[in-house]
Amino acid sequence: MSLIDIDPPGIGGRAGSCQPIDAVAATEFWYGSTGDDLAIGLRQHGWNVHELDIGDFVVSGRSLPERLLSRATRPLTIRAFNRAILESIDQTNAKIFFTVKGSYINSDTLTEIGKRDVFRMVYYPDYHFDYPGFSESIFEHYDLIATTKSFQVDYLASLVGRDRVIFVPHGYSTLMGCGRRPEDSDAFVWDLCYIGNASKHKLSYLAAVADAFPQLRMIVVGNGWTKLAAGTPLERSVLGYPLVGDFLPRLVSRSRIAIAIHFGQSGAHGWEDLVSRRTFEIPAYGGFMLHIDNEEVRALYEVPDEIDIFSSPLDLVEKVELYLKSDSRRAEMAERAHRRAVPQYGLLARASRLDEEVRARLDIAGGNP
Amino acid sequence: MKPATISGLFGDGERSIIMPGEFWRGATATGLAQGLRVHGNCVTPIEMAGYLPTKGNRAARALLRLTHGVASAAYNRAILRLAEQTDASLMLTCKGNLIANKTLKLLSSRGTKCVNYYPDYHFGHPKLPSGFLQAYDIIVTTKSFHVPYLQQLLGPERVACVPHGYAPDVHRPMFPVGNVDRYLWDISYVGIASPYKLEWLEGIARAFPDRSLAIFGNGWRAMASGSPLAPHVMGHSITGDFLAKAFELSRVNIAIHSGVDRKTGWRDLVSTRTFEIPACGGFMLHIGNDEVRALFDVGTEIDVFSSTSELNERIDHYLRNDDIRRSMIQRAFRRAVPRDSMDNRARDLLAVVNGRLPTPISAG
Hints:
heterodimer; A: alpha/beta; globular; B: alpha/beta; 14 helices
C-alpha cells in the first residue's frame, strides 16, 4: 500500500500566503473518520484545529456492564463535553467552531458560541436525522450547514434559509491511502467484497450473488451480518465483524470486484442514500466498483468506462459474471476510475471547499497553502 | 466451503499491528502509528479513552473511578478480540497503561508478539501492573539511561533504545522558518508543573518582569500560587496545532524536564520537547547535558543552560539579538527535520522488531 503524500511544509511553512485560522472542532476523530480527515484538510489551508473528541468523554463499550455504565454517566459526560467546547474556544481564541454531525452538542452551547462571535459550521454526513443525541431543531443554531446529501439541501434550506446551506459530498480518506491492485491476478485474495453494515435491502442483492456463484471467493465485512445472513447462501461469506482504517484499502484493492450498495430507505423523511463514502473510496483505493444505479453516481463516473452499475439483484449477478471473466478490462476501468477520483473526490478536496466558503463568508484572506 | 477469513491478506514483510493506547493529536502513539503506516504496515489503534474516558467533569470521573475494574477488563478484552479479528502479528503500545500481564500472555499464546515503546523516565506509574516489563517480548525505551538497567533485568536481546521524536503532521511551522512577523510571547514554557521546574521558571519571572512570559500545562495554578510566576500561568494545557503555534510564536522556548526520580535517581536528559520545538520552527533554550549536545550544535542551532544566572543571561542575549536567534531557528530546523521524525523512529523500531521477532509466514 502506498500512502497519498501530504506535502510536508518544509522551511516555507504550511500557511503559505493564507491568513491562518484558529478553530475548535468537536466530533469523533478516530483514524479514518470524516472528522479526522476534514481537520487534516483544513490544516493544509492554514487552519489550526483544536480537537475535542467525544470519545474522550463517553464510555463506548458494547458489553452489558459497559452499556449500563455509559447510560449512567451520559448526562454528566455530555455536560462535560459541552463545557469543554466553550472552554476550548476561550482558551484558543478560536474564530470558527465546526463539527461533523454534531451529536450531543446542545443548543445552549451553540448559542454561547454565537455570543462569542464565533462562526458555527456543521458537516452533516448521514442520510437521515434520527440519531441519539441529535435533533433537527439544532440546525437553526449553525451559521453554515454543509450536507453530504443532495436530497437534503431543499429541506434544510426550508428550515434555516438557502444562504446557510451548501452541498459538499463525501470523500475518500486521504490518510488511509491508496490501495494498489495486484499486477498478478493470482494475488487477489477475493473475487468479490462488500464492506458495510447489514440491512435487508443489501442482503437481497448480496445473497443473490452468493446463490448464483457457490464457488465465488466472497467476503462481507461489517456489523450485523452474522444474524441477518444466517441460513442464506451469503452465510459462508460473512466475516462476522467490521474492519476499519487501514483494512479498507487492502480489502478493496485485493478483491476483483467491490460492491457499493446502501442501506435502503430509513428515517422519518423516507430518504435513501444515492452515494456514500464507498462511492469515492473504492476507486481511490484501487478497487473495481459495481455501484447501485442512480443519476448521482452516473454524474460522478463514466459508466461503463470507469465503473459499472446495477439496478436489480439479477442485474448484479450478470455484471459480476461479466466482469469476473476479464481481468484486463476490470483493471483498465479501475485505473480510469482511480484517475477520476484522486484527488478531486477526497476529503482534502472537500476541506478546500469548506475553507473557501468560510473565508468568503468571513472575509479572511486565502491564498496558496 | 471455508468461511470468510482475512488470513492471506498480509504478504511477506507486511504486518497487522494492533496499538492499544492513547491517540490524541500529537501523542507519541499517534505519531508512531502514522510512521508505521508510512512503512507499509496495517495499524489498528485501540483507544483506551473509549473504555476509560480521560476527560470529563469531577462527578463523571469519580463515577468512572468506581467502575475502573469493569472498564479496564473491557479494554483488555478488546485488545484480545482485535488481535484475533485483525490477525495481528504484533501488539505495540506506548507505555502500556492498564494492559494486564495476563493479556500479554494470551496474546503471546496466539502468536502475537508484544512490544512496549516506553516514553517515560521512570517505571512507577499506578496504571502499570507490577512485573509488566518482564511480560513484554521487547522493551524499546526512549531513555538511554534505562538501557543498562533493562538489559540486566531482561537480557540484552529484549531491550533497545529508540529516542523520542516529533510528529511530522503536527509539529511543523505555520510560517517560513525563522520569519515570524508577530510573536505572541517573548518566553514560553509548556509542560506539567513540578517543584524543580518552578525554581527555574520563577527565576525567569523575577529577571524579566517587563517581558511577556507564558506558562502552559497542568498543575501550575496550584504550584505557582503566590509566586512571581503566578501572573504568567495560562491555567490550561496546550496540545496539537496550538502547541506547535505556541512554540513557533514564542521568541524563546525553555526546555526543562522533571527533576530526579527519588526511587531510581534517574532524571530526563531529553524529551519530546527537545525534538518538537525545533521542528515547529521554535527557538530552544535547553537544559544542558551531553545528550542534547550530541543532538544539536550548541551555540549555532540551540543554546543550553546549567544555572539560573546562565539561563537568564542567555534569554537576555537572544531577546536582544533577533538575527542570531532567527538564524539558529533555521539551522535547528534543518538539523531536526526530518532526522528526528516519528516516521524515522518507526523505521528504527521496526528494524529492531523485525530483526528480533520475524514476521510469521502468512497462512494464506
